[in-house]
Amino acid sequence: MNTLPATRTDDAATLWRACAQLIAGAPRLRIGRRSAGGRLVYEARHERALTDVRPLSPAAVMVYGPDGCCATLCLDLDVGRGGTDAVARDVAHLERTLTAAGARWIADRSSSGGVHLYVPLLERLPYDQARSIVEALSADAPTLDPSPHRSLRSGCIRVPGAAHRDGGHQQLLTPLAAAYDTLRRRNAPEVVQALTALVGAHAGAWRTEETTTVASTAGDDTAGAHASRGALGHRLRTIAETGLYDTARYASASEARQAVIAGAVRAGWQLTDVATRLADGRWPGLASLYARYSPNQRHRALARDWRSASTWLTERANDPASNLVRRSHTSASETQRGPLPAAPDVDEHGFIRTWRTALRLTEHHRLPGRGNHLARFLLRALGEAAHKTGSRYVAFGTRALAVATGTEHSSVAAVLRRLSDEPDGWIDRIEPARGENADLYELRLPVDLQGRVPRWDRGRAHALRPAFRELGHVAAFVFETIEAGRAATVLDAARAAGVSRSAAHDAVEALHAHGLVDRTHDGLAARPDRLLIVAEQLGVLEVVAAQLRRHRLERARWRAFLERHDADAHDDVPADDDAERWWWPPDDDVGWTLTDTAAHQAA
User: Fold this and answer.
1) In what helix (H) or strand (E) does residue 123 lie, and over which residues does it extend?
2) DSSP-derived secondary structure for 12-58
3) For the residues of 288-310, what is the DSSP string, one character each?
4) How many CB atoms sit inside 10 A of residue 340's CB?
5) More reliable by pLDDT, 507 or 319
6) Residues in Cβ contact with 177 at an 8 Å cutoff, skipping those fewer than 6 apart
7) How much of the chain exceeds pLDDT 90, in percent?
8) Which residues pair with 59 in a beta bridge?
């Protein structure tokens, strides 16, 4: 059937209600927002629950679910890849291929002329198989963009009825009744098998490029220890989170899967740690590797793999040729300078709490606007670091503070200079950096606030907690006010956080969508127990690990430079070669933040 000539004018809300949930791989969507460059982006911070109510802004449903599988093959033909005539040719080619496989599909068209073909599946299809089919189809259809099927975490697509950035909405080309029937009476597994056979010549081509990328970025598979449980190596986390693996190292998906399980056992994890991550969407890649089993059989398969890995590791434990000794870092956190200046004869923690509270009470008018968001979180990081070291004198390097605030060290250095140059500011640089020793800063109370002791804020100090690297600064400020009990409504949160009401509303929606805020009869309630779960679901912890690896290499180059040019300034500070291995946060510590990592980096 040729879908292109048809045009339909069905109501957008009706199209959305009829199609969205039957196409989506999970009951989630992302609202599109224009980036600084004017491009429409669909970010995790704007993720929401998928309902029958059509969003007024452009929205895209998620292609994959937490099980690492999709419910529909989504073929996105982009007019920007060759124009409307090229799209029409590729649609005709794809329709012939789908017809030959015995498939049923529906189609829609965007205001710009692009076309989507949707092939609904009776049985959910694992990431590896779905991507292989779509990548293979794109080899003979240049306008087909495989992007929606390339990422387990961010793959999404606008469905019939969804608003378009230039006005209008996705118009259904298939008659609505026929489309609904196709979405309800979905394609059997035999259709997927036939389609796989038809595209078999191109099915594995995409893996060659991915294998090169994965192999070049992967670290080792060893795991260190953080508290009672260590972190998986970068290579194993990549498999668990994305489903991508180096085919030169692992001959099959089952071998890659078993490597992740063995790594988890070796790192001191429990079976429940892995099972929970498979269930809640933190490890969709590993979940997709178990998709060959029925839902009732997957946990048994996982338990069987766990027993096999435990037995294998036990047998190798006494083998001197194996390198299965876990390393841990248990030394206390210190600053890079050793002894710090003696503080006045006062309660240091009391001064720091006074400083923190005074900052919170006055930052809205002393550090106003988005341009000061980083400054506010940098000061929070210094306050948290001061508590951890027990002194108002803080000597953490810019890279350690960059990890704690989710930014680059050059940005941290610029903001620190600006804050310390203020004549009556919050910090004072009392000793410049030299060699491996960082700048030494003292927390200071502005003169007009000295002698005024506010009621101390309750709870612990927090810099930018990992989840908010993705959800954003405004969401972090709003969450902070709700968690501290200073806001129970959106309006309260806007006032307490110093942001606009609309920004607070968007932040609360994002927090609620990720389970970080509950709406109760008594108002908004924070869920700090979910912060690390959400951070892992959003892939933030892997971003942090990559930043730590980069910093480790930069420090090594700096040490080498000091040894060549300034031996006197090179203190005997041990290299943090195992930094990525020990930093992984424990699940049961809701107060953990990346300043814990900064404190260790400074050691």
Assistant:
1) strand 115-126
2) HHHHHHHHHHHH-SSSEEEEEEE-TTS-EEEEEEEEEE--SSPPSS-
3) HHTTTS-HHHHHHHHHHHHHHHH
4) 18
5) 507
6) none
7) 40
8) 31
Residue 469: closest CA among 516, 384, 414, 539: 539
* Identity of the amino acid at 552: R
Backbone angles phi, psi at 510, to 5 degrees: -65, -45
Burial 109-124 (b: 16+ CB within 10 A, else e): bbeeebbbbbbbbeeb
Tokens of 556: 């090594």
Which residues on adjacent β-strands are paired with residue 74?
A: 118
The H or E element containing residue 535 is helix 531-537
Tokens of residue 481, six digits: 């006010």
Which tokens is 249 given? Answer: 């190292």
Helices (H), 328-368: 348-366
- pLDDT of the residue at 224: 38
Q: Which of 86-100, 498-512, 557-571 has the lowest mean pLDDT?
A: 557-571
| Closest-CA residue to 363 (of 238, 266, 449, 257) | 449
Q: In sequence order, what DSSP letters do the residues of 487-508 get, joined into one string?
A: -SSHHHHHHHHT--HHHHHHHH
Residues 6+ apart with CB under 8 A from 147: 76, 155
Helix axes 398-405, 373-389, angle to 10 degrees: 110
> 10 Å Cβ neighbour count for 35?
10
Per the structure block, which two tokens stand in for 333? Answer: 């956190």
Q: CA nearest 183: which of 82, 340, 79, 74?
A: 74
> Are 295 and 566 within 8 A, CB to CB?
no
The amino acid that residue 344 corresponds to is: P
Q: Which of 128, 28, 81, 11 has the alpha carbon at shortest distance from 515?
A: 28
Position 269, amino acid: W
| Angle between helices 84-100 and 189-198 in degrees, nearest 10 | 120
What is the spatial distance between Cα 329 and Cα 306, in angstroms, rounded to a whole number? 27
DSSP lists the bridge partners of residue 28 as: 49
DSSP code of 585? P
Residue with tokens 């791989």: 25
Q: Quick one: what percent of the chain has pLDDT higher than 70?
A: 80
Backbone angles phi, psi at 584, to 5 degrees: -55, 130
- The predicted-structure confidence for 499-527, as pLDDT tens digits, reads as follows 999 999 999 999 999 999 999 999 999 99
Tokens 């805020």, located at residue: 517
φ, ψ of residue 398 to 5 degrees: the values are -65, -30
Angle at the Cα of 13 from the Cα atoms of 10 and 17, rounded to 5 degrees = 105
Which residue spans within 315-399 are E strands per DSSP? Answer: 393-394
| Rounded Cα distance, 335 and 603, in Å | 6
Phi, psi of 409 (to 5 degrees): -65, -30
Amino acid at the residue 4: L
Cα separation, 494 vs 490, whole angstroms: 6
- Would you tell me the crossing angle of helices 234-242 and 540-565 to the nearest 10 degrees? 160
Tokens of 305: 């793999």
Q: Which two structure tokens, joined as six digits, stand for 89?
A: 């040719």
User: What is the Cα gyration radius of the chain?
Assistant: 27
Residue 537 buriedness (CB in 10 A; 0-12 / 13-18 / 19+): buried
Give the single-character DSSP code of 397: -
